[in-house]
Amino acid sequence: MEKPTVDVDILGQSYKINCPKGHEADLKEAAEHLNNQMREIRASGKVLGLEKIAIIAALNITHDMLSGRKYARSNEQQLRELTSQLDSALAHQTKVG
């Protein structure tokens, strides 16, 4: 089964990327996000060189992703605790009522 090729543009350079069928839009969105991050870093003037810009962008994106996971885990834990408290309160109310 052949994978489709998607054309993406990153900092003015075109790349042909193989992609699983049905995920072309996701790849384009990811490339656009990376391109925007790299443009912002380049525009700041603090980082020179394409390789360094790419590494800083990758670190920023990875940090955002990991922070989002930690936030989601925290929310899941809070939801479990609230559910447990509600279950206890309902069980107590059933016994009293």
UniProtKB/TrEMBL annotation:
GO terms for cellular component: cell division site; cell septum; cytosol. InterPro entries: Cell_div_ZapA-like (IPR007838), Cell_div_ZapA-like_sf (IPR036192), Cell_div_ZapA_N (IPR042233). It holds the Pfam family ZapA. It is found in: Cytoplasm. GO terms for biological process: division septum assembly; FtsZ-dependent cytokinesis; septin ring assembly. The keyword Membrane does not apply. Activator of cell division through the inhibition of FtsZ GTPase activity, therefore promoting FtsZ assembly into bundles of protofilaments necessary for the formation of the division Z ring. It is recruited early at mid-cell but it is not essential for cell division. Homodimer. Interacts with FtsZ. This is Cell division protein ZapA. It comes from Marinomonas mediterranea (strain ATCC 700492 / JCM 21426 / NBRC 103028 / MMB-1). The lineage of its organism: Bacteria, Pseudomonadati, Pseudomonadota, Gammaproteobacteria, Oceanospirillales.
